[in-house]
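Re: beginner question about structure tokens

> Can someone show what the tokenized structure looks like for a real chain? I only ever see the sequence side.

Sure, here's an example I had lying around. Input first:
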Amino acid sequence: MAGQWLIPVLVSAREKILDHEAYAHASASPLDDHDEPEPQLAAA
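And the corresponding structure tokens:
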């Protein structure tokens, strides 16, 4: 599954439709985005 991004990137780059700005700033996973602070656990 890790290589499934390769073909669309190569084809879009060849066809000159690749959004280089979005590609350069993409994160590997939505879990990598740290825009929101992590929730704090309540003290027991």
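Each token stands for a local structural state, so reading them left to right follows the chain. Residues 6-14 form the longest helix (9 residues).
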